[in-house]
């Protein structure tokens, strides 16, 4: 964490660093501390954090009041001990986490680095580095601070860094050192005499922006930009060493500036729990107020009685004191252990997510990771998902699939999305996607034949081979790197440079020894030995290449060009080498069409002859003059080169919306229309498109433009804007060469995951930067958009037209139920899909239109937003989260998805190929989109149900225990007398009842997790929040009141003989212990009856909690010299009425709940109940079905050969019972009557028919998750008839009764439509 200091206004607009002398300003040290506390601030800061919780302040206030004997009848330990334990646990947790951060900081600060001391590079620690120091960084070492690099031994002053620790990207990035020194021999001498100043920006968090000017005495000023800077925590790769000046240190480095705290998120259940605490406090106040009023009444009625000793103060004053007394007495109504229990439970649930083998991706070796545990239950309540496309739904493995050059489309394959469309519309039911990528034999034929088409193809593929920022390396080097991943000090790859001169760094004895971290000093000998390894002149021109690209698109295009004979071989200095055929090389060597300046230049300079290779190809060199890099504003990149024929050519590629306005007016309308048609065709196949252009630049234009370009690069004010403006001055009048179409295949399981999530009632919004046609076809391919849906398109850039269009559509669809008010399952049944462009979306998010937009989108099953920017993604999530009650989840894989992920209720990052920034900013991370289904339907649903049970049960047990004191108040004149010893009150939450509910919160499950994965409809109940609601909380309070009432008065009746009529204190202590034990057993049994899954550990924990009561009671009875409780536990253990009391309390208190629960399961079952019971029926699997078939076969034989006879009353009863189980409880009375009247034949025949019908339905229905096989009829008579046809005769009565009697009401209560209610009844038949 960065230091939270108040920012100071910089005295100057820039930071000035003195080189070679003492600094004139004081800068921060390089010591880094990410801890929250230090030894002096731990207790005060942590206590402040602990008491920021209202519950802790409440218990502290009660503990203070208990120190006044006139206000409390309890020992202060009643509140002090639980508070100390809860706070101590939280403090220990914080201390352990902070100690881990401290150890990490200590290791980082003690890492070695090499700093120039005037004559050599001496070893020092990271913490001792200061601004202005000169550092030497060796290969595979991390940078200790932000450096402006001035020297590297590689040709062209290039060096390569890996920024995985910064942005998660493992692709190497090419950087360039400032050319201040020509050779390592001159480096030490330069550093000894160099004096000057380095002027840079003040510390900021812009990772990809840097402005500076380096001034060395005796030399001209040199502009410094982001290309010359290496940041802290990045790693040097494939470069022997670099030397640079330190510009930012410690907490002022860019990585530390970006280490901001993640936004605080609270789950919906946590917010609801806080309301429950407030309600519980209101109940506490009401009970205390009632007792205070009753005490006033009791006092006024008995003040004259001689045997009562009342205080001399007024009745009003005594009532106030009694109010405080009962407030203290009933303080356990609020469960202080709830927060600690929830924290432990959520941490355990997060561990289950981390260790779920079914969410582990072996290809990338990435498991699921819960980066926070506070939002586990929110995973079970997700109602809308915002998803990126590239890398999230797709593999982000790009491959050129088609292209168009000169009005001709090359590539005849069928994309994955196109094949799906052909199967869907019936064009080709057996269509399969083409494998092998871009294939077209016409390209080589055209290139060999020559002509205009060959020239167009030559320019097109040369542009692809030049206009990029890829790094070329041999396959051999890649394999060596993969074999040495576990040896970071020897991980030096061989990079191919121009003309076969790769900087292959060998592990010579000198270099190998120099890489030893035990070296204390590095001098000129090391620099020379390391630099000599870069002079390898061996030729690797025939070795196959691999490209390391900053984006998958660039890598795909460079690879495609190489496969077509235009192979990028690397760079040496400013020379780009392309290997191509002789005919293609001649095109760039000839002087056709040169302008006069270039022709004169060609005559005066000898043209370098390219090197001939054995296979007849040539290495052609292009001189790189300027690189106009891609950014989110320009949406294009360009490279200006000097060709072998001395022509200046600008190659550009970018999105069609950006390129088309820059095209020259000389392009024919036919070419434009044809290209647009090609782009639309490519988009309809789900392909990513780019336009490729070029333009010849005259020498005079270049000289005029280069001056402004250099001035923009040297500017310290608004450098990025000036550079973009300068680039725009040369990117005009472009000639369209062609277009590319890249395929990005869908990930495995995406279609099934989206289909399942939509069936669960979750709405999905697709936010992508693709065109509308591409996004729509992606939606069809991944089953996000159904073929039966009507697609509503909203496009346009005029605010008034878009506003009117959206308002009209919202009014037209107003009759369709909104997802904000309807059930989740019906929200996805809308027949409409909404498709918006980026321009229209920007208008829809404006205040005048946002209400109409939300109204329209809420009535569409699917929303697809196209051409959206990262900011628009975040704005969409913010609008939906702010103006709707929906619980949102955002999922993405790239840095552009970070704002969206942080704005949503839950953010999920995919550890894909676009780095780890999305993962580092997320709440949960997964490796593939298909794992989202299990994360939500299994872990989310179970976490929500478990946490809900923990919350409700915590209030239940506390009300059950505490209100026994309320009932006792009626028998002690509401004086505030306690029935229990103070230690029992303190340990009730911490010892007697803590472990069982913690175990249930961690391990309880209704059925096997895979059942929920196959039954998505059951997730809808969690979306509606049916487990923990204000109604369920009120019912829990009422149940707690009933349990306390039952236990108290049952104990009063059974133990009446043990209670002395004169109020003997020993008898009161015995009664209190018996009642306390009864309540502990009762609430424990109540939780045990609610279990859905029982294992040996449940018996251990549940029985152990009850045993803990006896252990504590024994300790108190023996260890405390209190005559009132001395030996009471032995009396309890030896008393039969005490054990009888426990049994009767459990029966009286729990039987009503059990009967109500049984009634609901049998006659008002929810879908959860059906899922669980179906799973229980399937536990025996094939064995149970086989036994059933054998029994049926035997019955048929008996009916066929022996006739139908009643052999005995026992057999009749057996058949009757079997048929009763088959047909249901409602038919048992009629069945027994028929058996008694002698209708055995009819009974047996009914049995056979019912068994056959049940067997057929079991086979057809399969598992409960396969509900799509059941065709639901419309409402009304057809539903009844359709249901009759699908159900056996013996089940119709129950189904019709269930569906018709109050079906609509229960549908609303359960959040299900009537059709789903009928379906539920269909599934329920097997229970009877």
TrEMBL record:
Q: Where is the composition biased (Basic and acidic residues)?
A: 1301-1310
The way it spans or sits in the membrane comes to: Multi-pass membrane protein
Family membership: Belongs to the cation transport ATPase (P-type) (TC 3.A.3) family. Type IV subfamily.
Q: What transmembrane ranges does the database entry give? A: 54-71, 77-96, 276-298, 323-345, 950-971, 983-1003, 1033-1056, 1068-1089, 1096-1118, 1138-1155
Q: Which residues form a coiled coil?
A: none
Compartment(s) of residence: Membrane
The highest taxon in the source lineage is: Eukaryota
User: Which intervals of the chain are annotated as region Disordered?
Assistant: 531-550, 1235-1310
Q: Which residues form the P-type ATPase N-terminal domain?
A: 23-80
So what EC number does this one have? 7.6.2.1
Catalytic activity line of the entry: ATP + H2O + phospholipidSide 1 = ADP + phosphate + phospholipidSide 2
Instruction: Please report a single Pfam family linked to this protein.
Output: PhoLip_ATPase_N
Spell out the SUPFAM superfamilies in the cross-references.
Answer: Calcium ATPase, transduction domain A, Calcium ATPase, transmembrane domain M, HAD-like, Metal cation-transporting ATPase, ATP-binding domain N
Residue span(s) of domain P-type ATPase C-terminal: 919-1166
Query: What is the name listed in the Swiss-Prot or TrEMBL entry for this protein?
Result: Phospholipid-transporting ATPase
NCBIfam families associated with the record: ATPase-Plipid, ATPase_P-type
Polar residues: compositionally biased ranges: 1263-1276
Give UniProt keywords alphabetically. ATP-binding, Magnesium, Membrane, Metal-binding, Nucleotide-binding, Translocase, Transmembrane, Transmembrane helix
């Amino acid at each position: 964490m960065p230091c939270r200091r108040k920012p100071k206004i910089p005295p100057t607009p820039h930071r000035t660093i003195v080189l070679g002398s003492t600094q004139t300003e004081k800068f921060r040290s390089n010591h880094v501390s990410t801890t929250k506390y230090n030894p002096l601030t731990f207790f005060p800061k942590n206590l402040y954090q602990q008491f920021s919780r209202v519950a802790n302040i409440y218990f502290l206030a009660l503990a203070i009041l208990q120190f006044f004997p006139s206000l409390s009848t309890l020992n202060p330990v009643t509140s002090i001990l639980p508070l100390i334990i809860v706070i101590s646990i939280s403090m220990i947790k914080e201390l352990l986490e902070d100690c881990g951060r401290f150890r990490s900081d200590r290791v980082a600060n003690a890492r070695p680095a090499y700093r120039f001391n005037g004559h050599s590079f001496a070893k020092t620690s990271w913490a001792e580095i200061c601004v202005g120091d000169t550092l030497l960084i060796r290969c595979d070492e991390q940078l200790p601070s932000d450096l402006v690099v001035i020297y590297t031994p590689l040709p062209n002053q290039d060096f390569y860094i890996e920024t995985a620790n910064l942005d998660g990207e493992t692709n190497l990035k090419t950087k360039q050192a400032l050319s201040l020194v020509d050779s390592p021999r001159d480096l030490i001498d330069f550093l000894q005499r160099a004096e000057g100043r380095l002027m840079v920006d003040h510390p900021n968090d812009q990772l990809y922006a840097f402005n500076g000017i380096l001034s060395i005495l005796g030399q001209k000023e040199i502009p410094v930009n982001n290309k010359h800077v290496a940041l802290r925590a990045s790693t040097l790769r494939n470069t022997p060493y670099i030397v640079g000046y330190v510009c930012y240190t410690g907490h002022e480095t860019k990585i530390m500036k970006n280490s901001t705290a993640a936004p605080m998120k609270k789950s919906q259940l946590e917010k609801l729990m806080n309301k429950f605490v407030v309600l519980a406090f209101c109940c506490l106040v009401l009970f205390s107020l009632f007792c205070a009023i009753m005490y006033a009444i009791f006092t006024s009625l008995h003040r004259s009685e001689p045997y009562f000793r009342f205080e001399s103060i007024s009745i009003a004053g005594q009532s106030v004191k009694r109010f405080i007394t009962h407030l203290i007495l009933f303080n356990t109504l609020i469960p202080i252990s709830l927060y600690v229990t929830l924290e432990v439970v959520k941490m355990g649930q997060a561990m289950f997510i981390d260790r779920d083998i079914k969410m582990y991706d072996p290809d990338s070796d990435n498991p699921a990771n819960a980066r926070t545990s506070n939002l586990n239950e929110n995973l079970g309540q997700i109602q809308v998902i915002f998803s990126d496309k590239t890398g999230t739904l797709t593999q982000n493995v790009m491959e050129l699939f088609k292209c168009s050059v000169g009005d001709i489309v090359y590539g005849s394959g069928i994309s994955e999305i196109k094949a799906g469309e052909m199967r869907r519309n019936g064009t080709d039911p057996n269509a399969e996607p083409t494998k092998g990528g871009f294939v077209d034999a016409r390209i080589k034929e055209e290139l060999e034949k020559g002509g205009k088409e060959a020239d167009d193809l030559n320019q097109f593929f040369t542009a692809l081979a030049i206009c990029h920022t890829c790094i070329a390396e041999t396959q051999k080097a890649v394999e060596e790197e993969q074999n040495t991943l576990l040896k970071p000090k020897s991980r030096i790859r061989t990079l191919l440079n121009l003309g076969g001169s790769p900087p292959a760094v060998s592990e010579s004895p000198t270099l190998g020894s120099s890489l030893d971290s035990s070296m204390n000093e590095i001098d000129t000998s090391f620099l020379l030995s390391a630099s000599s390894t870069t002079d390898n002149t061996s030729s690797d021109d025939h070795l196959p290449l691999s490209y390391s690209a900053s984006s998958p698109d660039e890598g795909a295009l460079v690879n495609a060009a190489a496969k077509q004979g235009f192979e990028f071989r690397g760079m040496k200095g400013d020379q780009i080498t392309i290997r191509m055929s002789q005919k293609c090389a001649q095109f760039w060597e000839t002087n056709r069409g040169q302008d006069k300046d270039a022709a004169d230049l060609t005559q005066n300079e000898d043209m370098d002859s390219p090197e001939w290779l054995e296979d007849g190809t040539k290495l052609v060199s292009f001189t790189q003059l300027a690189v106009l890099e891609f950014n989110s504003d320009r949406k294009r990149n360009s490279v200006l080169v000097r060709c072998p024929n001395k022509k200046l050519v600008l190659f550009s590629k970018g999105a069609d919306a950006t390129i088309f306005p820059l095209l020259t007016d000389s392009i024919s309308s036919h070419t434009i229309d044809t290209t647009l048609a090609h782009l639309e065709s490519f988009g309809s196949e789900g392909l990513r498109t780019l336009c490729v252009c070029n333009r010849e630049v005259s020498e005079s234009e270049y000289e005029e433009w280069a001056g402004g370009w250099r001035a923009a690069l040297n500017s310290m004010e608004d450098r990025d804007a000036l550079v973009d403006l300068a680039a725009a001055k040369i990117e005009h009048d472009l000639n369209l060469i062609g277009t590319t179409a890249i395929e990005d295949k869908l990930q495995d399981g995406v279609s099934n995951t989206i289909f399942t999530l939509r069936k669960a009632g979750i709405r999905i919004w697709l936010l992508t930067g693709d065109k509308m046609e591409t996004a729509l076809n992606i939606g069809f391919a991944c089953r996000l958009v159904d073929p039966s849906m009507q697609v509503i398109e909203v496009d346009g850039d005029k605010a008034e037209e878009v506003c009117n269009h959206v308002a009209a559509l919202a009014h037209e669809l107003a009759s369709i139920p909104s997802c904000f008010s309807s059930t989740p399952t019906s929200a996805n049944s809308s027949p409409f899909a909404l498709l918006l462009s980026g321009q229209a979306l920007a208008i829809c998010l404006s205040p005048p239109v946002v209400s109409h937009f939300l109204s329209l989108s809420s009535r569409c099953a699917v929303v697809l937003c196209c051409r959206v920017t990262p900011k628009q993604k975040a704005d969409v999530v913010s609008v939906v989260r702010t103006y709707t009650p929906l619980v949102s989840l955002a999922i993405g894989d790239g840095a552009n998805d970070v704002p969206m992920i942080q704005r949503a209720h839950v953010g999920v990052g995919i550890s894909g190929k676009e780095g780890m920034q999305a993962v580092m900013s997320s709440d949960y991370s997964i490796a593939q989109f298909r794992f989202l289904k299990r994360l939500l339907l299994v872990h989310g649903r179970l976490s929500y149900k478990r946490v809900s049970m923990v919350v409700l049960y915590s209030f239940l047990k506390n009300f059950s225990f505490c209100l026994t004191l309320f009932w006792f108040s009626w028998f002690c004149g509401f004086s505030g007398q306690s029935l229990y010893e103070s230690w029992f009150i303190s340990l009730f939450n911490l010892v007697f009842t803590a472990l069982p509910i913690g175990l249930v919160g961690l391990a309880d499950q209704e059925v096997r997790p895979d059942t929920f994965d196959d039954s998505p409809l059951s997730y809808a109940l969690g979306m509606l929040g049916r487990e923990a609601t204000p109604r369920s909380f009120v019912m829990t309070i009422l149940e707690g009141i009933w349990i306390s009432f039952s236990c108290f008065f049952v104990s009063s009746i059974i133990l009446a003989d043990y209670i002395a009529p004169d109020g003997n204190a020993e008898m009161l202590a015995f009664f209190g212990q018996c009642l306390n034990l009864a309540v502990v057993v009762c609430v424990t049994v109540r939780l045990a009856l609610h279990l859905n899954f029982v294992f040996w550990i449940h018996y251990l924990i549940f029985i152990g909690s009850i045993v803990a009561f006896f252990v504590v009671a024994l300790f108190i009875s023996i260890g405390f010299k209190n005559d009132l409780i001395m030996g009471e536990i032995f009396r309890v253990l030896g008393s039969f009425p005490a054990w009888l009391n426990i049994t009767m309390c459990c029966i009286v208190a729990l039987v009503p709940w059990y009967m109500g629960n049984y009634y609901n399961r049998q006659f008002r079952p929810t879908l959860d109940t059906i899922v669980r019971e179906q799973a229980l029926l399937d536990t025996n699997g094939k064995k149970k079905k086989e036994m059933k078939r054998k029994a049926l076969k035997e019955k048929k034989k008996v009916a066929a050969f022996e006739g139908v006879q009643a052999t005995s009353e026992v057999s009749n009863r057996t058949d009757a019972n079997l048929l009763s189980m088959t047909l249901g409880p409602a038919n048992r009375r009629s069945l027994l009557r028929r058996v008694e009247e002698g209708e055995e034949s009819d009974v047996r025949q009914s049995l056979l028919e019912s068994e056959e019908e049940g067997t057929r339905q079991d086979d057809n229905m399969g598992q409960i998750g396969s509900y799509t096989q059941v065709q639901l009829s419309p409402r009304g008579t057809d539903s009844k008839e359709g249901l009759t046809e699908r159900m056996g005769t013996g089940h119709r009565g129950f189904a019709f009764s269930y569906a018709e009697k109050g079906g609509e009401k229960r549908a609303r209560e359960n959040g299900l439509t009537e059709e789903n209610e009928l379906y539920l009844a269909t599934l329920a038949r097997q229970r009877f």
